[in-house]
Amino acid sequence: MKKLFLAVITLVLPLQCYAEDSSSYIDYRYVKPNATLYDILNSSATPDETFILNNTLFRLDFVYNKKKTEKLYSKILSKSESFPDSTDKYFSDKQLYLTRSVESLITYILKDYAKDIGPIRVPLVISADKYRDSFFYDSKIYSSIGCKGYGIAESYIKGCELPSDERTDFLEIAYHPDLKMTDDPNQLNQIPNNNLKESFSYKILSTIPQLLGFRSSINTKGYQAPLSSLDKVLYSDFLDHSVYEGLNFSDIHDNCFVNSNESCALYVKTDDLKTLFSLKNSTDNSARLNTKEYPYIHYALYLKPFVNIPRTILSSGSFINYGFYTQLELELLKAIGYKINTKEFFGNSLFSSGSSTKRQSVVFKSGFSAWSKENNDYKTDQASRVPLSIGTTIYGSYNDIVQEGTIASVGYGSVGIRVDGSFNTITVPKKTSIIENGHNSSGIAVTYGRDNVINIDGDVTASTEGGIAINLDFGSNALSDYVEFQGSYHRVRTLDVKEKRMTREKGAAVSAPSDIRGPLVSKLNITGNVTGNKNAIYIDDTAHVKEINITNRAKINGDIVSLWEPFVDDKKTGVFINSQHVDLISGKVQLDTNYDAKKSHVRAKILNDLKTNLYLGSDISHVSEKAKYKKENSRANISIDGNIIGKTINISAIGGVTNICGYIDTNKLLINNASLNIKTANYMTNYMTNYVNTLDLSHGGQLNLANGNPEVIVIRDIVKATANSVISVDTKLDGTVIDAVLFTGKTNAADNVINFEPGLSYNEIKALSSDPKALLNLLNKFVKDRNFFLSQHGLSMRFPRHIWYTQGQMGRKVKCTIRGCYLGDFVKTYAYSSEKLPLWRYVLSFGGIVLMLIAAYIFHRKTSSRFY
Predict the structure, then answer these.
(1) Cα within 13 Å of Cα(243), Cβ side
(2) 763: Cα within 13 Å, side-chain hemisphere
């Protein structure tokens, strides 16, 4: 009980950031002067508040004055170069607040270097110039022993004496004037959300490492004196030693030059990075490392160093979907001489991969929570309070991962388990919890790759504002979705089309890597508990999820939402992925093999394959991958407290009972040998309408709307029903139906019969049980009411065989004569009442009859012989 109390307090206690318990590290989201315990337990962060420290290592000062700006650039530009366009009124208090947040995060990472003398001030210039790149300029490089190769800011942080002459360093943030930069104060998140605009936080985070010394002392030919902190730990596959002053790129390899990507094979060599990437030493110097896994360093615009790990902050690609540093990038900062405890931001990281023929199995017994400096380990009874953390990072592919250790965080913008690889299987066991209760955080996020499988047997929670328990989303491109956005089967460049560097056809079908030519998640299996404040399961318009299995005893608290929407264009030239942003070009679907889009049956098959199949009551424990049909669990009991929304979601209730406290708006609803109970939430007495394109009531299928509330369901396109299925509806004592079931399309019912059965309250059924004539009269009026409705569609119904309680999940059999109707046995669901008897029951009965006949014959012979 004591541990439970401590765990609960941990999730709501104020976030106090500290460096050896220094009072200068305070998060103002929660803490108030003289706050009582009651104040702390009952306070919560507001969406626009973030992580701010009293005292930071450096301070970025916006320079708006034109003369000051020109003076800064005059130190670094030649006479032939013109000054870039700058802006003086672009930034509001929101961006200033965001800048302070970034300063605070970097200071917290480097809290061992905290100083009492105040921050070093670095000028910040905003440049509205699409031809420039964000960059940190520092013309003052130390050459003295001990600080050799350091810039001004790096020297200050590492303890070198600052020069007395005039400062020449400054940071330039450049942006495309047509795209602009987002001013969203919540843009600091592990998963970017800047959409069409450029991410301001990304631009700062990508240039701060330069300020800290992550730069190279090079020209177009090679390395110069003095070497930078990065250069001193830089090695190559083709060298037996690190780079040195005067080393030319051509000396490394014939194909090596300043802006070559992998030809120089340059990498940072530390024991921590070797461990992170499972790097094995090779005696063969010509052997190449796996560039998809190991972080090569290369140079690009302004001779700025980049890391060859796609989509990360320090990478140079056209698509960046990390909103903060990875453990790899913090390890690189450690490599250039900084003391950093990466365990405060990352619990486990897996960058290595198995293969399609030999998968890698990993069990993470450790989790992620508050860090204890004294014990050099996690405090398992306290959640982490650090923002932008990741409990477990899965960057590799072909891995089977079991997350046994619990992950608990209240830091904003954090992720419990983040998956960026392909063909991985991630399992959260029964006794494991993933708790991400910081603002705008995600329990499990799959943000890149294909054909991943997620098994949730334990608990996944993201219960604070903006929280998503299972987030299936490629995220925004930090460079702007307008520049490029990627998703399942598609890669698009809208800006290149607008600026006429590409045709619309090419811009909609930029060659997609094989890692995204498949569903982001092939299977999501849930047998545990999933809770999300914003969404329990979110499928973005960029992500395809092929199959979701919600099984016995699973509980979903929160909405299941899918924005995924493939379509065929008007000219029938292919299948495209619809974007929620009308300004973006829709991406053309790219599969592993080419397809003939001119053939209608090919397009139809692709559209069908791109649906999301949501199975309720399936039994996944004994089903092989090649099984044609899903195996049902007739005893399944599933609870979904939220809405299910998605134009491409096909719901299949195939076993047991599923209770949905919310409304549905999906493509298809199939119910087979199962009961699906829908009770829409009461939003100020305005009950929401349920929509499906297709309703398929198969054998033993029961759509139960009888719950005491007026329900509305609209079937847009087609209703299919067997004679052995039913729709249960709330009914008044005069036989009229309260719920509205509307057919606006076609019907396809066996023998033109669709069955309805009434639902009444416990007291009403109790009263009718003693009045057979009244019950017969009610059922006759009910049949008349329903047949009048069905006759408009050329249908009819048979006389009801059950009556259902609006409270609970039970019904009673009904038997009628000309004198009245009588209530019979209780039934749990319509499927139980209408299920076919198994063959062994018939065999047993037949065998029993035979035995009785034999016994009767023997008895007859014995008794008759007495008379002779």
Answers:
(1) 35
(2) 2
Mean pLDDT value across the chain = 86
- pLDDT of 690 reads 97
Phi-psi region of 495 (alpha: psi -120 to 50; beta: other; left: phi over 0): alpha
CA-wise closest residue to 272 among 238, 314, 233, 309: 233
pLDDT value, residue 847: 72
Task: Please state the rounded mean pLDDT for residues 505-525.
Answer: 97
What SS3 state is found at 746?
strand
Q: Rounded distance, CA 232 to CA 336, Å?
A: 8
**245 Cβ partners below 8 Å, 6+ apart?**
223, 224, 225, 226, 227
Phi, psi dihedral angles at 409 (to 5 degrees)? -150, 145
> Which stretches does DSSP call E strand in 685-774?
686-687, 689-697, 702-704, 712-721, 726-730, 740-743, 746-749, 756-760
pLDDT one-digit tens code per residue, 383-392: 888 899 999 9
Q: HEC string of 580-620?
A: CCCCCCCEECCCCCCCCCCCHHHHHHHHHHCCEEEEECECC
Tell me what percent of the residues of the chain surpass a pLDDT of 90: 63
Q: DSSP code of 743? A: E
Amino acid of residue 485: F
Instruction: Give backbone dihedrals phi and psi of 401, rounded to 5 degrees, phi first.
Output: -115, 135
Q: Which residue has the tokens 């995204």?
A: 516
Stretch 29-46: mean pLDDT: 36
Give the CA diameter of the chain.
138
Place of tokens 């076993």: 655
Q: Tell me phi and psi for residue 754, to 5 degrees.
A: -125, 120
Q: Which two tokens stand for residue 407?
A: 């992950």
Do 350 and 366 form a contact (C-beta atoms < 8 A)? no
Each residue's pLDDT tens digit, 722-763: 999 999 999 999 999 999 999 999 999 999 999 999 999 999
In 724-781, DSSP assigns E strands to 726-730, 740-743, 746-749, 756-760
CA angle 452, 456, 462 (to 5 degrees): 100
Q: How confident is the model at residue 87 (pLDDT cuts 50, 70, 90)?
A: low
Residues in the chain: 868
The first and second tokens of residue 133, run together, are 């790149």
Q: Which H/E stretch holds residue 856?
A: helix 839-865
Contacts (Cβ under 8 Å, ≥6 apart) of 571: none
Distance of alpha carbon 769 from alpha carbon 628, whole angstroms: 46
Does residue 472 contact residue 520 with C-beta atoms inside 8 Å?
Answer: yes
The values of phi and psi at residue 751, to 5°, are 55, 20
